[in-house]
């Protein structure tokens, strides 16, 4: 199983230890480009569809909060990607 497929399976299962790097892998696969703003604010922008998702990069540990996972899952479902 590829790194991408493992990350997608983990995202769908909403684990408590989902890492920022896994999110980056998934978003790149679906055509999103990460844009850094100030501080920990990040935007993932899909160039073709002109849609974006705003989220904060977790720190000091790279583990996403549950509310962030829900935002990402809902967004990807709305876009027909999950």
Structure report:
It is a single chain. With 82 residues, the protein is α+β, with helices and mostly antiparallel strands. It is 41% helix and 21% strand. A 3-stranded antiparallel sheet has the order 1-2-3, with helices on one face. Strand 2 and strand 3 form a beta hairpin. Helix 1 packs across helix 2.
Write a brief structural summary.
With 82 residues, the chain is α+β, with helices and mostly antiparallel strands. The chain contains three helices and three strands; from the N terminus they run ααβββα. The chain has a single domain (3-78), classed as Metal Transport, Frataxin, Chain A.
Strand order, main sheet: write it out. 1-2-3
Instruction: Label the CATH architecture.
Output: 2-Layer Sandwich
CATH superfamily: Hypothetical protein
- The SSE order reads HHEEEH
Classified by CATH, the class is: Alpha Beta
Mean pLDDT: 91
Helix content: 40-55%
Rough outline: globular
Which regions have little confidence, pLDDT < 50, spanning 5+ residues?
Answer: none
Query: Biggest sheet, open or closed, and with what strands and sense?
Result: 3 strands, antiparallel
Number of domains: 1
Q: Structural class of the secondary elements? A: alpha+beta
Kindly identify the CATH topology: Metal Transport, Frataxin, Chain A
Radius of gyration: 12 Å
Number of DSSP E strands? 3
Whole-Å distance between the termini?
18 Å
Strand percentage, roughly? 15-25%
């Amino acid at each position: 199983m590829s790194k991408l497929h493992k990350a997608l399976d983990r995202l769908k299962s909403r684990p408590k230890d989902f890492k920022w790097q896994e999110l980056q892998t998934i978003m790149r696969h679906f055509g999103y480009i990460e844009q850094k703003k100030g501080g920990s604010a990040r935007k993932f922008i899909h160039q073709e569809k002109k849609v974006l998702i705003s989220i904060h990069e977790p720190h000091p540990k790279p583990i996403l909060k549950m509310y962030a996972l829900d935002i990402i899952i809902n967004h990807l479902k709305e876009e027909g990607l999950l």
